[in-house]
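Posting for a labmate who doesn't have an account.
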Amino acid sequence: MKKENGVTLTSIIIYILALLIVIGVISALTSYFYRNIDLEGESKITNSQFTKFSSYFTEEINQEGIEVLEAGENENVSYIAFSNNTTYTYSKQNHCIYVNEIKICTNIDNCTFNYEENGGKYKITVNFKSGEFEKETVFNTK
């Protein structure tokens, strides 16, 4: 009997099925990996937005003789105004926080300002939400 060397149809089908399984496993792992990277990247961006806002706001309220003139909210903006002509405004239309007319934070879902006065000192509460990041922070003036 003659010995036949070569690739049979059955072996080709087995090779193709094995390659499809390997490609499917690799694509599942890759998509899981990239999905987690995207979530981590978004989390870092929102944390950095809060850190940026917090540094501006802390510098503002730590100035000597600073007073809160007014804080409020309407359907389009939330704001707080200080005695040194500085106003922090959150625009609900474009989801940004401004210091006077300068944009300091973007991609903010919500930001509200409230304050209480106690003997010339102010307790300012800021509710900040950006993506999954949500924080209520209390700032006290000197």
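Reply:
Got it, the structure tokens are right above this. Strands lie at 68-73, 77-82, 87-91, 96-99, 102-105, 110-118, 121-130, 133-140.
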